[in-house]
Amino acid sequence: MYISNEGLLVILFVGLVAGWLAGKIVRGAGFGIVGDIVIGIAGALVASLLFPKLGIRLGTGLVSEIIYSAIGAIILLLVVRLVRGGGRF
């Protein structure tokens, strides 16, 4: 699999914005810029696996990908907080 430089920049940008949005919504302690990118990309993976099975489609384009990834990152952060924080949201 080959990812161009522009494709990699888009993935990093979407991951950064989605991770930042998820961190603001969940109100965590923050993970820094690298942590936000990782959480955003992992959230995109969670959303891409979960949403098609539920029949949820948000459309196409960069904004929908950011929203899609942010929702996945929020789900991921809530699960991490549930496991690490003793069950409190």
Automatic annotation (TrEMBL):
Transmembrane segments: 6-23, 30-51, 66-83
Gene Ontology cellular component annotations, sorted alphabetically: plasma membrane
Annotated InterPro entries: Transgly_assoc
Top-rank taxon: Bacteria
Protein's cellular compartments: Cell membrane
Family of this protein: Belongs to the UPF0410 family.
Protein name according to UniProt: Membrane protein
